Amino acid sequence: MIKRATTAKKVAKRKPVGGGEGATARVKSISIPSLGTKIQKASPDPLALDQAILELELELAGVAREKQGYVDSHRIEFFKPFPHQQSGIGYIRDGKKTVLVVGANRVGKSVFGVNVVSSFSLGCRCPWDGSELYPSEGSRERNGREVNGRILCNDWEKAARDTIVPLLKEWLPAGSYETKKNNVGVDYEFWFPKTKSRITILTYKEDTKSHEGKKLDWILCDEPPPRDKYIANRRGLVDYNGVCIMAMTAISEPWILDEIVLNPDHSTGIVSDIPIEANT
User: Which of 129, 137, 223, 251 lies at a CB distance of 3.0 to 4.6 Å from 241, suitable for a disulfide?
Assistant: First the structure.
């Protein structure tokens, strides 16, 4: 019977999984009856004691499920940036206007980008540590409200539908946003009623004119953008002095190397030389 009580304690201590990002145990406080109270009420009847321990095991298992449910639906609160991701966040916080995170596949570039821009949309605070993170001077003046930005990616069929949209839904808190679908059935807009902020997804397949004419606080390029699309979106950052983030593998668009990487200025922050095992 004592052994079973020990097993129950282990259920309660099960660590929540933060998507491989090392989530902390920061979940809602849930009260549970103490083992001592249960045993005192059941003593000295052995059968009653056994029943009390069984009930406690079931209660603790329920608490563990409730905690895990909270973690799964508020995953961004348990995001723990890797060093290269934290470096990118640091550049944004320092006011850099062009931030590149360059590395191989599967080092967490897209996860970095999605968590950062989600923070912009949730009031310009990082949910995992509560710190401020503003993408633009305009967003700071608006106190983290009405923050508008774009995620740019290669196409709707793979990049948007299979990568960007699932990542946003995976990390954003449940109930914090509403979505709209485009004519190909992909969620292209995420609206945040509480902060009046908006994330819009565009692809490099759209004509350049579709990328123009919008005032933006930030843009996130998931993989290298064609130069004409970059310039069109960059113009939209001028009014609010916003940031352009590129999370990419440098296998295309050599203009980025020539014009940005090899000619950086004080407003550019570059995270590179990320080891392939950095996401482990």
Answer: 137
Neighbours of 231 (CB within 10 A): 13
pLDDT at 235: 96
Other Cβ atoms less than 10 A from the Cβ of 180: the count is 11
The owner of tokens 């540590």 is 129
**Tell me, what amino acid is at 52?**
A
Torsion-angle region of residue 244: left (phi > 0), alpha (psi -120 to 50) or beta?
A: beta
| Angular region, 242: left φ>0, alpha ψ -120 to 50, beta rest | beta
Where residue 101 falls among pLDDT bands split at 50, 70, 90? Answer: very high
pLDDT at 117 over 50: yes
Task: Tell which phi-psi region holds residue 47, choosing left (phi > 0), alpha (psi between -120 and 50) or beta.
Answer: alpha
From residue 151, give the alpha-carbon distance in Å to each of 6, 63, 82, 179.
49, 37, 22, 14
Indicate the angle between helix axes 35-42 and 46-73, nearest 10 degrees. 160
CB atoms under 10 Å from CB of 254, counted, come to 12
Lowest model confidence (mean pLDDT) among 36-45, 53-62, 91-100: 36-45
DSSP lists the bridge partners of residue 151 as 201, 220
Place of tokens 């930030």: 218
Q: How far is 123 from 142, CA to CA, in rounded Å?
A: 10
For position 280, what pLDDT does the model report? 59
Q: What is the mean pLDDT of residues 25-33?
A: 48
Where in the chain does DSSP place strands (E)? 98-102, 148-153, 178-181, 187-192, 197-203, 218-222, 243-248, 268-271
